[in-house]
Specification:
heterodimer; A: mainly alpha; Cytochrome C Oxidase, Chain A; two-stranded antiparallel sheet; 15 helices; 2 strands; B: alpha+beta; GMP Synthetase, Chain A, domain 3; 3-stranded mixed β-sheet; two-stranded antiparallel ribbon; about 35% helix; globular
């Protein structure tokens, strides 16, 4: 590696807009959730919930992940991004498609706007996938982390392909099964294939790096990789073509074993860490990893119960909520505080290090706001989960209002970092 | 009085050693921006050589080979030394063998990490 990472790092102009757009999207998600408590307590496939889910998954989570990936890829792949121009094109196409797609769901325009929006989304993600795939091909030494990320990108392609087919089917009606069936596969390809693999790939680099943990057993990551991919492939093929009743349990178990291998890897990193005190970014990360168990158990329960009582419907909503807010968003919040300050710091102070006194990366944002945001976020998702599962509207509303405050705090800290002005002081003279 | 200087002249080896001590002191002010501990107490400096003229060679490592701040840390090492010795050539070599580990951290560094 020998210090090539910074030379491979992309311009902050391609990375930073993703963080701003992501922060704004999260605020929109929080506001829309507070306005949709009735829908949250009904069924998960309500059109407004689908709109919010797409803003959350695409506008917030994927947007942040794209930005972080452009920065992380040179570290993991040990090469520069194939094309920064394609990155900029992806950003704008993607931002417009997220707006159009979510709006078409919100107003339930399934046969008109949705078709064009999903085709535009397909095209924007295709540009992203090609860009990252060509970057991966430049890698001289693929490692397990880059394999996770690259395979996650292929699952993103599959997710998007199925999503576009379902959207086209609303108008042309060529698929054999009901939409809800394909929606289930589309959601799992995205959540397990794209996000879970990406999270494991990125986290298995970042967690040991930030906790300062060494000599970890990478075989566990290899096992996790094969178990999760084989399980997901079998699960999707079964759902698409066989729809067997018993197979699904087995495939979930295989995926679950893969997740346990990853959890065991993180546990080793956690117990063997040199840095004892966890900062706010690492606290989010540890909680997110532990929460991985929650949707796994919920899914198993839903599979066993199998009926459609109002409680089971709400549990279905909670299942998605726990993945999006308990794992994905939790990790993104954590990693935002472990990446964005460094991206901005490198951009502003790279040429001043050693020559002038520069602030530390963590001094680029308000640690107090980050702490309030952390405790607020925990309170919000616990209250909202209780509200959804036990049908408690007041608790759900309270949680969603706290979530709006959290989203504002998050945006303030993002903007504080992005708008940071370079501050340097003369170094004390050495005698 | 004062006609005879009783302080013996320093040999070139002694001067070199003094300069190395000064350079090490300079490096003890170079921080790893993420861990927020200086690179000397972290045990990242493997070798420090000064040729007695104008060349300093630093062999060092990082807490992880994937460190995205590697170039910033290397630049900081070079520039800090050049702040005092403007005409010096500073060569920094990054090595990952032997791999950095906890035993390389000084007692003061361990205290800072809360170990």
């Amino acid at each position: 590696m020998n210090g090539l990472q910074t030379a491979n790092a992309p311009s902050s102009k391609i990375v930073v807009p993703h963080f701003i757009a992501g922060g704004v999207s999260f605020l929109i998600v929080a506001i829309l959730l507070a306005l949709s408590t009735t829908e949250l307590l009904s069924v998960y496939f309500d059109n407004k919930l689908i709109a919010i889910t797409h803003i959350a998954i695409l506008g917030w989570a994927s947007m942040m992940v794209f930005g972080a990936l452009y920065q992380l890829i040179p570290v993991v792949y040990e090469t520069s991004l194939f094309s920064e121009k394609l990155g900029v094109i992806t950003f704008w196409l993607f931002a417009v498609s997220v707006l159009a797609l979510s709006y078409s769901f919100w107003i339930a325009s399934f046969t008109n706007l949705l078709i064009y929006a999903s085709l535009l989304m397909f095209f924007s993600l295709l540009v992203f996938i090609i860009n990252l795939h060509l970057t991966y091909r430049k890698t001289k030494k693929p490692n397990i982390q880059s394999k996770f990320i690259n395979t996650g990108i292929y699952w993103l392609a599959a997710t998007e392909l199925l999503g576009t087919l379902v959207a086209l089917n609303f108008k042309y009606n060529f698929l054999s099964d009901i939409h809800l069936h394909y929606l289930k596969i589309h959601a799992h390809l995205g959540l397990v294939g794209w996000f879970l693999l990406l999270i494991i790939g990125a986290a298995s680099i970042l967690i040991p790096m930030f906790m300062i943990s060494h000599r970890l057993n990478e075989k566990k990551l290899n096992y996790a990789y094969y178990f999760i991919n084989i399980g997901l492939l079998a699960l999707s093929l079964d759902w698409l073509f066989l729809q067997s009743s018993i197979g699904v349990y087995i495939y979930w178990m295989i995926i679950g074993v893969g997740i346990l291998f990853f959890l065991s890897y993180v546990y080793d990193a956690y117990t063997g860490r040199l840095r004892r005190k966890l900062d706010v970014g690492l606290k989010y990360t540890v909680i997110a990893v532990v929460v991985l168990i929650v949707p796994l158990i919920t899914a198993l329960y839903l599979l066993i119960v199998g009926d459609t009582t109002p409680f089971v419907n709400r549990l279905g909503t909670f299942y998605g909520f726990s993945i999006i807010f308990g794992i994905i968003s939790m990790l993104i919040f954590g990693q935002t505080y472990k990446t964005l300050p460094f991206i901005i710091w490198l951009d502003r102070y790279q040429n001043y290090v050693g020559k002038y006194k520069t602030p530390l990366p963590r001094e680029l944002y308000s640690e107090k706001l980050a702490d309030y945001q952390y405790y607020g976020y925990l309170a919000a998702i616990v209250l909202m989960s209780i509200g959804i599962v036990f049908n408690q509207r007041i608790i759900l509303q309270t949680g969603s209002i706290i979530l709006i405050i959290v989203a504002v705090l998050n945006l303030i800290n993002i903007l504080m970092m992005v708008l940071h002005k370079t501050k340097i002081e003369e170094l004390p003279k050495h005698k | 009085m004062g006609l005879l200087n009783t302080t013996p002249m320093k040999t070139s080896e002694e001067i070199t050693e003094i300069e190395i001590d000064i350079i090490e002191n300079i490096l003890s002010h170079v921080m790893d921006p993420e861990i927020e501990i200086d690179i000397v107490n972290l045990g990242l400096i493997y070798e420090l050589n000064y040729d007695g003229k104008t060349t300093v060679d630093v062999e060092m490592t990082l807490s992880t080979p994937a460190c995205p701040l590697s170039d910033a840390i290397v630049a900081s090492v070079k520039e800090s030394i050049k702040q005092k010795y403007t005409d010096f050539v500073v060569n920094v070599k990054l090595v990952f063998e032997p791999r950095w580990h906890a035993e390389m951290i000084t007692e003061a560094g361990k205290e800072m990490l809360g170990m």
